[in-house]
Design goal:
five-stranded parallel β-sheet; alpha/beta
C-alpha cells in the first residue's frame, strides 16, 4: 500500500483527442486507487454509449452548468468542441488536503488553469500521438462521432500540440504498454521524490532507462508540428 503524505499530488494529463490520455489515466487509476482519485468533470455534452453519469462525467444541462459558473463552484471551465466542461473546486481541495492524489484528464486550457490554482501540487504530463495520420485513424475508428466532428478534432489537435512546452513531461504513445510504464514512472518519482525507496516497486534502473529512452519526445512534438 502506498504511504500517505502530508499533501496530495495533482496529476494533470493532457493530449489531443485520440492520443490516449483517457486510456492511460484510467490504467494508472486502476493500479494506484484509492490513493489516486479520478477527478470527474462536469459536461454539457451528450452521454456516449457505455458511459455512466458520475463515473465518466457528471452530465448536466447547459442551465445547470451556468448556475455553477455563477456560484463560483468551478476551478476551471471551458468550451471544448462546442460543449462545456468544468472541474469543481471543493472535491479537489478536500482530496489534496487529506494527502490523496487527484488525476485529471483535461485539455491544455484546463491544465493551465489547474496548475495556476495549485502550482505547488501540480504534475503536468502531455501525451503525444505517434503521428497525425495515426491520430486521424484512431478518431475515425471510434465510430462515436460524426465525420464533421472528427475533422474539427483533427483541426483542433494541431492547436493543442502547440502547448506541449507548458508541460513538465512528454510521453509519445506509440506503444501503450511502454507509454504506461513512462506515466507510471513519472508519477511514482514525483510522489516519492527520492531514489532507493523500498515502498516503490519500480526499479530505479528501469526508471532511468525508460526516461532516457523517451528523451526525444520534445523533438517528436516539434516534428508533428512541422517545426
Amino acid at each position: 500500500m502506498m504511504q500517505s503524505v502530508s499533501r496530495g499530488v495533482l496529476v494533470i494529463v493532457s493530449s489531443p483527442s485520440g492520443a490516449g490520455k483517457t486510456t492511460l489515466t484510467r490504467r494508472l487509476l486502476g493500479e494506484f486507487g484509492p490513493q489516486l482519485e479520478f477527478s470527474i468533470s462536469y459536461t454539457t455534452r451528450p452521454m456516449r454509449p457505455g458511459e455512466v453519469d458520475g463515473r465518466d462525467y457528471w452530465f448536466v444541462s447547459p442551465e445547470s452548468f451556468q448556475g455553477m459558473v455563477e456560484r463560483g463552484e468551478f476551478a476551471e471551465y471551458a468550451w471544448v468542441h462546442q460543449n462545456r466542461y468544468g472541474t469543481a473546486k471543493a472535491p479537489v481541495d478536500a482530496a489534496l488536503g487529506a494527502g490523496r492524489d487527484v488525476i485529471f484528464d483535461v485539455d491544455w486550457q484546463g491544465g493551465k488553469v489547474l496548475s495556476e490554482l495549485w502550482p505547488r501540487d501540480s504534475l503536468k504530463i502531455f501525451i503525444l500521438p505517434p503521428d497525425m495520420e495515426i491520430l486521424a485513424s484512431r478518431l475515425r475508428q471510434r465510430a462515436t462521432d460524426a465525420p464533421e466532428v472528427v475533422e474539427r478534432r483533427l483541426q483542433k489537435a494541431r492547436e493543442e500540440l502547440e502547448h506541449y512546452p507548458e508541460y513538465q513531461h512528454l510521453i509519445v504513445n506509440d506503444d501503450l504498454d511502454r507509454a504506461y510504464a513512462l506515466l507510471r514512472a513519472i508519477y511514482l518519482t514525483r510522489r516519492y521524490g527520492t531514489a532507493g525507496r523500498t515502498d516503490v516497486s519500480y526499479p530505479l534502473s528501469d526508471l532511468a532507462r525508460l526516461v532516457d529512452g523517451n528523451s526525444g519526445a520534445a523533438a517528436h512534438a516539434k516534428k508533428l508540428l512541422g517545426h
